[in-house]
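task queued by scheduler; priority normal; single chain, no ligands, no partner chains; default sampling; output format set to structure tokens
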Amino acid sequence: MSQAWTYKDFVKDALSRVPEISAEELSRAEARHHVVLLDVRESDEMTDGTLEGAVRLPRGLLEKNVHEHVTKRDTPVVLYCATGNRSALAGDVMLRMGFTNVRSLAGGIERWRHLGLPVSGGAVVCRLPGAKLNWDDVRHEFAIVARCVPVLGSGERNLVYMDHAASTHAPASVLTAYTEFVAREYANIHRGTHHLSRKATERFEECYYIIADYLRAELRRGAICFTNNTTQAIDLCSHVMADRPGKVVTTEMEHHSNELPHRRRGPTLRARVTDEGELDLDHLEELLRKNDVKLVAVTAGSNVTGVMPDLRKIARMAHENGALILVDAAQALARMPIDVRDPDDVEHIDFLAGAGHKAYAPFGAGFLYGPRALMSQAPPYLPGGGTASKVTPRDAEYLPAPDRHHGGTPNIAGVVGMARALSFLQAIGMEEVRAHEVRLMERLLKGLQEMGGITLYGPPDASKRLGVATFNVDGVSDLLAAAVLSEEGAIAVRNGRFCSHLYMDKLLSAKAKAAGQTTPPTGAVRASVGLYNDESDVDRLLEYVQRVRDRKWRGHYQVKGDAVSAEFAGRCADKWMESTQESNTTQPDGDIHGYEFEVLQPDGACRSYLIADKDSGEAMLVDPLREHVDHYLDLLKSKRLRLRYTLETHTHADHLSGSMRLKELTGALMLMHSAATPPCVDKRLQDGDTLELGTLRIEVMGTPGHTEDALCLVLPGRVLTGDTLLIGACGRTDLPSGSSAKLYESLQRLMALPEDTVVLPSHDYQGQRASTIGREKRTNPRLQVPNAQAFAEMMAARKLPPPQKLREALDANQNCR
């Protein structure tokens, strides 16, 4: 009995009858003349764009509805899907239906986008050939850039995430593909006849080709096996090579994941690194020449220094000495172009391991690329469901690779997300990604080198390393330095030895010896850049590293195991992460602003704020909402706070104030600007007034414009801006008592505050909790206009619809109802 056909067999068979058209050919105007374009993807796959002029006809409706769009059987038709597989099958169906001029787009829309050709709609980054890439568009794909975290003495600041060497965040388009699959196509793959199973199988099978295209690999002699992460992918390679004679050569540069799996399966040798952290290729060549070596396991880029060994030279050396090469591409996968080359090329890569979570995909999916024949000869990595073609009472016949190593249900959604993330990177262009990283690293390395008092590990040339900078601040432990960066600068970095103990021991000892130190540091700080980092992120990191160097941190830090900051709960089981011994306690340089602050309704469009003095227990609620009064009372009770004031930053036209109700229930005084008309106001405030909550002093800033009675509150480290200044915008000026001229002046006053002042508005409709004065100066279009007249013209042109229930809200708030 012949073996059952796979999805790939069906595609291959269809392509024997359905001719393909390349994206380059189709993009030419004459090729599109009189052609009917049919997009046979499902509707949820089209969120990231379609080809201009295409008819959306999901594959499941093709036979039923194609005649409505292609009325003549000889009309030229081009079908496309994500990667060109489904469209080939659909084209074969159309040929059987009698259509005679049918072609399939080779590589599908993923290939089209990879070439930078235009699509209609969608949010995925895509650029025309020769066009300058807008990195702001890339940043907007990532929700994390708007994430605010608490910092000591300053409320909240936008997070600067520089821990990409550990894990990366997924962009919106990747999350959409991932959640759409889970929500609408969730089913197990293979051997299922129902629609969802077939769809899931198609999605899963397409991922092989997307990843192969990313690696510039072919899947006739090569194979891709999916795993949970890079460590498992390397372990699978070690398993495949276990029964072959010879030793494995690793290097002193490797992550533990590319060292420990090989140790447990046989003898290993280790190539040295130099004191500067570079791989000693002469020593590697000596090990290959003097030993029977079956595999050289080497990183494409160090997770500590970013050093990039010469993989082409190492591959040639390995092959000339009868060995294969395994590349750990965990760090390099999302940072540089990768080309495994043809298997007949003496410099080709035999095995390559990577994972999605370091390439802007969700956790839980990785892969191993390797020789198909060799992987099909090895015993199943995990025998079980999906690995065997036939099972008898005493024996089993196993499928070839990759299926023979896919025991049980894989992380299907994770694989889909990983493939989508690699497509996202291809749409940007890996050369652009690499150039962006080098630019940021040049700025970072130059700043660290010129600062003084910093020990930097790895090459000083940004072009010779990935986007990773590992350093120590002289006289300050890595644990404390990372804590200050996090707790005061809102900067996410990593510290320790990064699961590369052999390499770190060599680097730390060599640098300490060169500096005349008898005892090397126990770890270091690592900052790693990514797609959505920009120059301002690098500058903030340098600013706070200098504060650490100058011992000008604000907080009181007690280093006790991993209790300094959550950033230190790592997976590597380093001894200082587990230690309960208390180290030095560093006294603060300056006082911490000791008041309590909380954002209420943080996920809603209307924000309220709680401010309290910790010592006296006096509290104030700013812009409370009527429907949340009961919650506020419970919160005050749980915190043992006494409500002294409620404050309205202006007369609201879009919701009902809770101040009157809180005043009735608690006896709190209601505060507003002196221009406010509600009769229930107990104290009317003037510009320059100071409010007192215990020892806390709060400055009142009159900011008319959105309304005549608008005000802002200036606290240590933050400003509550009401509807005067919004994140990326400002309040409207077309409501009763609004004035564009006055709002322009008010905004200019706010811009005079320190740039690191956190901006907290009363409203936000984009899920952003806060910004800073500096960021708004640079990015808020309302602040870029040259004068009051231009500002008034811009505001007049907005023509916004009135708020819902405008008159009802105004009447209620002005008359204390």
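post-processing summary
- Residues 122-131, 565-592 have pLDDT under 50 and may be disordered.
- The radius of gyration is 31 Å.
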